[in-house]
Amino acid sequence: AKSWCAMQAAPLFLVSFVDEESSGNRSSWPDRKENQRQQEQPRASQHEIQLHRFAMGRESEKALLETASSCLDNFELLSAMRVLAAGDADMRSLSEDCECLRNGYLRAYNAKNTEKDLHIETILGVLEMVKELWSSQSLGADTRVRLAVMVGEMLKHSPVSKKKVDAILNRPLLGSQSQRFGKRASHKCLSS
Amino acid sequence: SWKSTYQKTRRKIRNKLSALSS
Question: Span A16-43, mean pLDDT?
Answer without folding.
Answer: 60
